[in-house]
Here is the input.
Amino acid sequence: MIVDDLYVTYRVNLERKNSLKNALVRKARKEKVRYREVNALKGVSFEVPAGKCTGFIGANGAGKSTLMRAVAGILPPTKGQIEVRGKVSTLLALGVGFNSALTGRENVMIGGLAAGLSRAEVNEKFEEIADFADLGDFIDMPMRTYSSGMFSRLAFSVAVFMEPDILIIDEALSAGDAQFKQRAGKKMEELMNSAGTMLLVSHALSTIQELSDEVIWLHKGRLIKRGDPAEVCDAYLEFLKVGDEAIVMEDF
Ligand SMILES: Nc1ncnc2c1ncn2[C@@H]1O[C@H](COP(=O)(O)OP(=O)(O)OP(=O)(O)O)[C@@H](O)[C@H]1O
Here is the structure.
């Protein structure tokens, strides 16, 4: 997977009420809609070798989730390129893509079809997915009735059993109870051993160091450091102690 000079800019509408009536009034008065631009990623480049796990760290608002959404194809790049070979499966914090009005079973089917599997292939995997998520009868209830733990267990289960070529995991390990975390960790190890490529986002540096072959540190939309997990995590910890100025001086 290659990410080349990636920029993502969000446009945030600053109007308080974004109604049709307001839009017409503004048009009649020849007023412009006011936007504020947020440059969430500013020229990020890196490659992830197949079969390796890359961890992403950085302070709040660094652009980690934005990067994952872009790689998953949920968010179009404003500029730059993302080259992905194979099937990408995402496990974003909130189980993006699930429709909470539908049952767990229905969402598994939709998720599977979206990942490029046939209906028959999803049916074949269904039992395994449902068993691993351990939802009991809730699998046939609308997902809005799920606890957040149940929600993330199903999201995790769908993502890993789709046998993706690239698996994106964004803070997934913080969800669910201790027992599930253990099972999830085991399953991820299996996945990595079967040579899947992984992108992992977490604020838990111990998890990142344990699982990653390489770590990328993002700060305010830029790639600050990339390389050996222990080295990059140490540099980041040092930065957290020293504060913002040090890295601004050093890198820009
Ligand atoms: N939907 C959105 N609309 C506008 N701005 C956004 C949106 N999502 C994120 N941003 C902004 O983009 C920047 C990067 O956010 P992002 O969520 O990617 O960071 P992050 O590293 O994942 O942070 P955290 O560790 O807090 O999850 C932030 O300044 C954030 O305010």
About this structure: Residues 10, 12, 38, 40, 58, 60-66 surround adenosine-5'-triphosphate (CB under 6 Å). The CA atoms of residues 57 and 179 lie 25 Å apart. The mean pLDDT is 85. Residues 178-193 form the longest helix (16 residues).
